[in-house]
Amino acid sequence: MKAWHLYRYAALVLVVLLAACGASSRERALRTTLAAVDASAAGFETWDGQHQKAIVDQAKSADEATASITAYRLKREQAVAAFEVAYHAIAAAALHGSAAIGPALKAAEEAYQVLEELKHGGTAEAATGDGP
Amino acid sequence: MKITKEKILAHADDVEHVLELIGDVVGGKLGGIAIDAARALSVVEVAYKVLSESLHGGEVDIPARTRIAALRAQLAKNDADVDAAIAKKFDTGGE
C-alpha cells in the first residue's frame, strides 16, 4: 500500500473510531491520522528527490534544467504548506480534544490532494510517472 | 518533575547531551527525526521546545514544528543533491 493511500485508510479508521466516541478511540484516531501524514511525508521526500533528478535527466541544457527545477520547487511549496497545516491541525487536536479531530483529518486529506496534484500536474510530468 | 529550559541546560553538558535527552524522552524513530531536526536548526531552542511540548502534548510525541523542520531539511538536502547533479551534468562548475 502506497504511503499516500494511508490517508484513505486513516479516513475510514477515523469514521469507525469516532463512532465509539471514547477518549481512547479519539487518541487512536489521532495517532492513525498522524501516522498517515508521517508516512506520506516520508514518501513525498523520496519522490521529490527522484522527480527532481528525472527533470535534470531530461533537460538538454543547464538553463533548461534550472528553469524546470525552479518551477517545480515553487509548486512544491504548496505541498509543504499543506503538510504544515496538517501537522499543526493534528497538534491542535492533540491538545484540544475531539472537536479538533475533524479539521485535522480534513487538513490531512487536503495535504494528500495537493501532493497528488503536484505529482500529476508539475513539470516533466512523464518523468517519473508513478501515479496511483 | 517539570521540565524547564533551565533544567535542561543545567543538566546538559553540551549540544550532544541535549540531543540525547530528546532521544530519551521521545524515543524511537520519531526521536531520531526530532534529533535530526534539532541539528538542522538552532539546536538548543529546538531541543527545549521538543522536550517541553512533548511532555505537554501527551500522546503526540513530536510537535508540529519539529516534523515540519525535518521535512524541510530533507527537501533541502534533495535540492542540494539536484543542484550538484545539474552542475555535474552540464559542467557549470567550470574547469
How would you sum up this structure, described in words?
The complex is a heterodimer of chains A (132) and B (95). With 132 residues, chain A is an all-alpha fold. In chain A, 81% of the residues lie in helices and 0% in strands. The longest helix of chain A has 36 residues, at 23-58. The N and C termini of chain A lie close together (10 Å). With 95 residues, chain B is mainly α. In chain B, α3 (28-40) runs antiparallel to α4. The interface between A and B is medium-sized, with 31 and 23 residues.
Distance between the amino and carboxyl termini of chain A: 10 Å
The number of E-state strands of chain B comes to 0
Can you give the helix content of chain B as a percent range? over 70%
Mean pLDDT of chain A: 75
Main β-sheet description of chain B: none
Order of helices and strands of chain A: HHHH
- Roughly how many Å is the radius of gyration of chain A? 17 Å
Measured between the Cα atoms of the first and last residue of chain B, the distance is: 60 Å
What percent of residues of chain B are in strands? Answer: under 5%
Radius of gyration of chain B: 17 Å
Mean pLDDT of chain B: 64
Work out the helicity level of chain A: over 70%
Number of helices of chain B: 5
Largest sheet of chain A: none
Say how many strands of chain A there are.
0
- The low-confidence parts of chain B are 54-61
Backbone structural class of chain B: mainly alpha
| Assembly classification | heterodimer
Form type of chain B: elongated
Number of helices of chain A: 4
Largest interface by residue count? A-B, 31 and 23 residues
